[in-house]
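Problem: given the chain below (282 residues), write out its structure.
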Amino acid sequence: MAGSGSGRMSGMLADKLRWRARQSLGIFRIYIQDGLAYRAQGLIWVLTDVTTAVIMPQVWMAAGKGAAIQGYTPGQMILYYLCVILLKSFIVSHFMWDISFEIREGIFSSQIIRPMPYLQFMFTRNMAWRFIRTGIFLPFFVLFTFLYWGQIQGSHFYLGWEFWLSVLLGHFVSIAIVTALAMIALFTEEAQAIFELYYVPAMFLGGELFPVALMPGWVQAIAHWAPFYYTAAAPTEILIGKVSPEVAGQVLMAQAGWILVGVALFGVLFRAGMKRYSGVGM
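Solution.
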């Protein structure tokens, strides 16, 4: 009897997981089509990253006059920017703007009554756009790799499981933090100003403008205690060998910790915000 009950429970769990997977696949397909419909807009956004990939390596190579800066050789500096921008295309999310608009217009109401958790819906929806944006940037990555090949040839990559897990966790860190931040829109219609402020520490502490290792020690300490570094910068440093596999374990634990913090913060803000939400715009 116990074995039969356990088997039924396992079967029900398997059925539920398959149902969740089918839900996610359906949402993923819908938003892939939506993203392809606006691929020109995506290209414009990607061009801002292309500008960074072109300009910043040249700035640091000119500053170092061919010498290494804080352990980064010119080739490693080029490689860092190419890799961090490629990984950022997949990892870093910005959909708090969409959530804010949908809350203000009442679209949020139809989303929270879907037969699937809101976080699952947003994760799947965002994943579709991440695939499209990464695909748009990939040809530029190949082009710049070819153009910079003389400087970066001979560089070593670490493609162990720590790197791949760090990429996945970095994506979850970004989603958890951004979704929690978006819940501020349940309390105020002026959340956009707060979202703008978010990008100041994100750019400086997330390794987008320059590697965290080039900053003063006290700034590095802040960066390693904030979530931004654990999105794209951490897996990039693992990839190019600036973080050893031994230390990578600590990075992975920090990423997991920030995911839990983001999900918990989302839960608190979501429950409190739903008491105030009135579906304005419906």
